[in-house]
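Page 47, continued from p. 46.
Same chain as before, 115 aa.
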Amino acid sequence: MSAYAVGHLRAAAQHEDIFVYMERIQATLDPFGGQFLVHGTGVEVLEGEWPGHLVVIGFPDLAKARAWYDSEAYQEILPMRTRHVAGEVVLVEGVAPGYDAADTAALLRQRHRAA
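Result:
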């Protein structure tokens, strides 16, 4: 099942470290099948507030996403970003093909009634 690394990163002053990080990150993703799906583009906020930028990187599965983040190659460049850009990064597994939220609602309703 697909998995994603999702980053909510705050705007920061440009710095040479950030440029180097951006130049080198793809090489850290390639061995794990990672690819950028969203990278720092503006967001259209429909509810609440969203300070910063969104980054979404897709992976074939959660194990590959974890292996990328923990890899020596990525850990070597990670401080170049974290020293200059605040934010949150999470790994999340996608849903199976054919997923229907109504099925999940029915299961949750059943569990709620049984409790």
